[in-house]
Amino acid sequence: MNEYATLTKPATIVMKRLLPGPIERVWAYLTESDKRSTWLAAGGMDLHVGGAVFLTFNHACLSPVPETVPKKYKDICDSGATLKGVITQINPPYLLAYTWGEQDGSESEVSFELKPLEDKVQLTLTHEKLFDHDTLIGVSAGWHTHIGIMIDRLEGKTPKPFWSSHIPLEAEYKKRLSKT
Description:
alpha+beta
């Protein structure tokens, strides 16, 4: 299974990963704030089409290992990043999709498709409507890092700190996605 996100059409990335199951446990990590806050962001989700999504990011809490925030991201980390979206598709525990509202008012859309495979779960993450190349690179590295942290959490491992994983991945995605 390809670990790196790929550009499937302009402004759309897809990442496939194999996660430890069962599917209901992975679904809980996508939808329940207390579990989601350990790998992505805390916040409520009204689990129905049209339901509100609130995500409050705190990258420093994703790992117990302390690290310095890169200068490039210091402003959003100091002020806190909050995202608001709306659920566009839901079919528990197989599909969750919602708009990804940026602080500048733009919107993209992310979907998580889950498929049970024996004791594992195949995750297909699709993020569409990524408005420019820099965003494509940052979002690809971000999802790669966040999903890696979720896998560590599902496996009972201590995850690496977010930024020390994310920054090298940005450089790798810049190489990979500039070729397409």
